[in-house]
Amino acid sequence: MSGIDILQHLKTDSRLGRTPVVVLTTTDDRIEIQRCYDLGCNVYITKPVDYERFVNAIQQLGLFLAVVQIPEIA
Q1: Is residue 74 situated within a structural domain?
Q2: 72 lies in a domain?
Q3: Which domain holds residue 58?
Q4: pLDDT tens across 12-63, in order?
Q5: Which of 18, 36, 44, 46 is 20 to 30 A removed from 30 (C-alpha atoms)?
Q6: HEC profile for 33-51?
Q7: pLDDT exceeds cutoff 90 at 5
């Protein structure tokens, strides 16, 4: 199963669909990046990781989580 398969499965699951997703990969293909965002990823980061960009992405995700309520899995 590829990372995109996992992302698609996660986002179509009614219990997990709102889970924030950070994609960390070596692929910098624009079509692949857009596909991940279309499937619902929140942040897409390519390796090698630029430390400041990574920290910024995680901070933005933290702000998102502080505002949005993610339902608990029953």
Answers
A1: no
A2: no
A3: 3-67
A4: 999 999 888 999 999 999 999 999 999 999 889 899 998 998 898 888 888 8
A5: 18
A6: HHHHHHHCCCEEEECCCCH
A7: yes
Q: Which of 3, 70, 71 is nearest to 35 (CA)?
A: 3
Total domains present in the chain: 1
Quote the tokens at residue 34.
């857009």
**CATH code of residue 48:** 3.40.50.2300
Query: How much is the pTM?
Result: 0.74
Query: What's the chain's length in residues?
Result: 74
Q: Are 22 and 42 in contact (CB under 8 A)?
A: yes
Rounded CA-CA distance 51/34 in Å is 22
Residue 73 lies in a domain: no
Token pair 């698609």 in the structure block, residue: 8
